[in-house]
Amino acid sequence: MYYDLNYLIFMLPAIILSVWAQYKVKSAYNKYSKIPNSRGLTGESAARAVLSAHGIANVKIEHISGSLTDHFSPSENIIRLSDGVYGHASIAAVCIAAHEAGHAVQHAEGYVPNKIRSSIIPVASITSKLSTPLILAGFFLSDTLIWVGIALYSLAVLVYLVTLPVEFDASRRALATIKSTYMLDEQEYSGAKKVLTAAAMTYVASALTALIQFLRLLLIVSGRRRD
């Protein structure tokens, strides 16, 4: 119980931020997904408009089922938009689709943080799965295994940290294009900014959680060595 309580206290800032960020993004999305934009732009047409504004014509835009399952697949060069975004003409649909198109623009322009993230993810997806068993085994066998596990986990932490500039930049590109091409009026633009800002905080929360967990592991191992 003692260690469980310590863990809770240690992780409390990240837990609070995560809960708050999830609440804000759901609240903002629920609000602005029900408000139509004045130009009647669907998510699909908004994504295409962002691509066109940057001279990109080779990216496909497809519909995918689910809620907030929107994403850009760099390996396939496809933007996939969810049920509430692809064919909907809401403020939320426009800004979410524009954000995913922002990722496509990053890919086309060779945005460096995005390239770093893409190169790390395949390795980190494997090392993150190996890190926990190694760390647990190390507590019974050898501190060396713990350090190896922590080193592997650090790659996953790096992915979370590199994701922050990638996501913030995609939103920046989306909002700049929305404004310069007059997709939304001033009041609608303010709503779009709130949706994307709320979404960005979920990535901040994830990065903070991973970083705190990483630091906690370092403190535990350091404490074992002193003992």
Largest sheet: 3 strands, mixed
Q: What are the secondary-structure elements, in order, as H or E?
A: HHEEEHHHH
Give the strand content.
under 5%
What is the SS-derived class? Answer: mainly alpha
Global morphology: elongated
The radius of gyration over CA amounts to 20 Å
Number of helices: 6
In order across it, which strands form the biggest sheet? 1-3-2
What low-confidence regions span 5 or more consecutive residues with pLDDT below 50?
none
Task: Return the domain count.
Answer: 1
Distance between the termini: 21 Å
Report the average pLDDT across residues.
88
Question: What is the count of β-strands?
Answer: 3
Percent of residues in helices comes to: over 70%
Would you write up a description of this structure?
With 227 residues, the protein is mostly helical. It has one domain (2-226). Helix content is 74%, strand content 5%. It contains six helices and three strands. It has helices at residues 2-32, 43-53, 91-109, 112-140, 143-180, 186-226; strands at residues 60-63, 71-73, 78-81. Strands 1-3-2 form a three-stranded mixed beta sheet, covered by helices on one side. Strand 2 and strand 3 (78-81) form a beta hairpin. Helix 1 packs antiparallel against helix 6 (186-226) and helix 5 (143-180) runs antiparallel to helix 6. The longest helix has 41 residues, at 186-226. The model has no long low-confidence stretch (mean pLDDT 88).
